[in-house]
UniProtKB/TrEMBL annotation:
PANTHER family: ABC TRANSPORTER PERMEASE PROTEIN HI_0355-RELATED, ALKANE SULFONATE ABC TRANSPORTER-RELATED, MEMBRANE SUBUNIT. Belongs to the binding-protein-dependent transport system permease family. It is a multi-pass membrane protein. It holds the Pfam family BPD_transp_1. Gene3D superfamilies: MetI-like. The chain crosses the membrane at residues 57-80, 87-113, 119-138, 185-204, 216-237. This is ABC transporter permease. It is found in: Cell membrane. InterPro entries: MetI-like (IPR000515), MetI-like_sf (IPR035906). SUPFAM superfamilies: MetI-like.
Length: 257
């Protein structure tokens, strides 16, 4: 019950603070609309918001799928082939010196203004956190596990899939949580650079027409989508590593006087 009341209390506190700022500053509605006005716009423009939210959601999910898949394959390749690791790892590190957002116009030029460029943007922003987290988890497999498996005659493939990969699941789950947090950013930035649909396009269009209440409503829908995606990924990550919850519960019970 407490777990349910806490987020409700936080949401109510944020809404009250928002309304208090509107009252104290007496800001005009085209600068800072109140939460009641945004909620009214959310209800009246709900079909329009859902139409654009559906496009953004597809871009985010496809980016998550591609970025996670490519990141996992890259991490497994890096840990398996040392020669590839010597060449690819520096390239991955150097690539992070280039802001991903700076590539958005280039992606628009190469891939067009359709969904493909936005999915590519989301994939790029997701790829490195997943690759880095999974690779670190694979590298940090306990040496005792590997030595015991080799003693029992395990092959390299068995060591990778049955020892290293399960041991790396907690780190992989952390990478997925980071990916879920940044995936909406990649999709929306791509829509800001150039698109005709999506929540990013709707926010820019509403801002240009001084429809700030609609812009806030679109931002609220995006925030709800991002939170739903994060908690869904967090649930999947916890299901993949049930022993972590058990160890945490045991430690908590042990520290209870």
């Amino acid at each position: 019950m407490t777990a349910l009341l806490r987020p409700i209390g936080i949401a109510l506190g944020l809404l009250l603070s928002w309304q208090l700022v509107v009252w104290l500053t007496d800001a005009p509605r085209f600068i800072l609309p109140g939460p009641l006005l945004v909620f009214d716009t959310l209800v009246s423009q709900f079909p329009l918001l859902m139409k654009h939210a559906g496009v953004t959601l597809i871009e985010i999910l496809l980016g998550m799928l591609l970025g996670t898949g490519l990141g996992l394959i890259s991490a497994l390749s890096l840990i398996t082939w040392s020669r590839l690791r010597r060449w690819l790892l520096p390239v991955l590190v150097i690539s992070q010196a280039i802001p991903v957002f700076a590539l958005a116009p280039v992606l628009m030029l190469w891939l067009g203004y359709g969904m493909t460029s936005k999915v590519a943007m989301a994939t790029l922003i997701i790829y490195f956190p997943v690759t880095a987290a999974c690779f670190d988890g694979l590298r940090q497999t306990p040496t005792g596990f590997l030595q015991l498996a080799r003693t029992l005659g395990a092959s390299r493939r068995a060591l990778l899939l049955q020892i290293r990969l399960p041991a790396a699941l907690p780190a992989f789950g952390s990478g997925l949580r980071v990916a879920a947090s940044v995936a909406p950013i990649g999709a929306v930035v791509g829509e800001w650079v150039g698109s005709s649909t999506g929540l990013g396009y709707l926010m820019l269009n509403a801002n240009a027409r001084m429809q700030v209440d609609l812009m806030f409503a679109a931002l609220l829908v995006l925030a709800v989508m991002a939170l739903a995606l994060y908690f869904s990924v967090n649930l999947v990550a916890r299901r993949l590593t049930p022993w972590l919850d058990e160890s945490t519960s045991s430690a908590t019970r042990g520290n209870t006087p």
